[in-house]
Amino acid sequence: MKTRVTELLGIEKPIIQGAMAWVADASLAAAVSEAGGLGIIACGSAPLSWVEDQVKQARAHTDKPIGANIMLMNPEAPDLAKLLCDLHVEVVTTGAGSPAPYMEMWKAAGIKVVPVVASTALAKRMERAGADAIVAEGEEAGGHIGQLTTMALTPAVCDAVSIPVITAGGVADGRGMVAAFALGAEAVQMGTRFLTAEECTVHADYKQKIIEAKDSDTIVTGRDSGHPVRQLKNSFARQAKALEAKMAAGEVDGHELENLLTGSLRRAVVDGDVKGGSLMAGEVACLVRDEKPARQIIDDFMTEAEQWSSCSLQQMADRNATRSWK
Predict the structure, then answer these.
(1) Which residues contact 1 (CB under 8 A, 6 or more apart)?
(2) What is the pLDDT of residues 109-148, one digit of tens each?
(3) DSSP codes, 245-286
């Protein structure tokens, strides 16, 4: 399948794996890229040595394009930006800041730059800065989120910029891709769906919580602080919400909440602490029902999308009436 995104990034299928801190490592990224999508290594706040090692590990398992994600608020962002040039990473996705200071260097190294945005204003700004494509991420996504839903954000961003748009947030199967394309996107980014890929190295207990999740099982913490995060409901999330309410009422300061948040994602991903850790996941966790190889996830996804895209509106209505979309 060809879109402007597949042509731009040199991939076979318009599927990008989301950059999930503590999750998106060489194992998952290489598997997604080898299956025809674009695997992303999430640099987060990891040491430069870890990033270099992960890129090299991914290269050992695939000769397909590999991406890396930089959170630009990271104090080491300048060194990391240079390292990714030296490692010849094909794609960089960015968040939490503007990539403008590094754009010239990345372009000279042949790197495609794809910022993640949550508003049309930021999308326009990124296009002016020289971005090659945009990820429009709706609030349905897991982890750090904006305020607009995917259904509203995607077409708004598509209307606002001329570069290709990738939809993220709320996509877990082929129906989601068809919907995203109908809204104007030319690829999709998925995070939560890949959490249960066999190659994903998160703790087995974390994966099981995703598989068991219902549609009402996510919660957003941090809205009052301006740093909203979507995750599965558990003791940690409820405690965080309670502390946020006490802070808003002036009953406690921020130290108790800060202590709770510190290391919470690692506790879930590495230790498998499904009660006291942050189980970041999108609303589509309720659509993730099994663990299987990344290649099968992508192949099934594309098959479903092809089936739906070949339908007329009437055929879609008929399928929906009988729940026979699979």
Answers:
(1) 12, 13, 14, 302
(2) 999 999 999 999 999 999 999 999 999 999 999 988 888 9
(3) HHHHTTSS-SHHHHHHHTTHHHHHHTT--TTTS--B--GGGG
Phi first, then psi, for residue 217 (nearest 5°) are -95, 5
| Cα gap 171→187, rounded to integer Å | 11
Tokens of 111: 């790197």
**In contact, 244 and 256? CB cutoff 8 Å:** no
Gap between the Cα atoms of 120 and 99, Å rounded: 17
Q: What DSSP state is assigned to residue 94?
A: E
Helix (H) or strand (E) holding 165: strand 165-168
Closest to 76 measured CA to CA, from 57, 102, 110? 102
* Radius of gyration of the CA atoms of the chain, in A: 19
> pLDDT by residue (tens digit) across 260-282?
888 899 999 999 999 999 999 99
Buried b or exposed e, range 184-221, using 16+ CB within 10 angstroms? bbbbbbbbbbbbbbbbbebbeebbebbeebeeebbbeb
d(CA 299, CA 186): 18
| Other C-beta atoms lying within 10 Å of the C-beta of residue 315 | 12
Residue 9 and residue 90 in contact, taking contact as beta carbons nearer than 8 Å: yes
pTM score, whole prediction = 0.90
306 Cβ partners below 8 Å, 6+ apart? 174
Report the b/e string of 143-158 with b at 16+ CB within 10 A: bbbbebebbebbbbbb
3 state DSSP class of 300:
helix
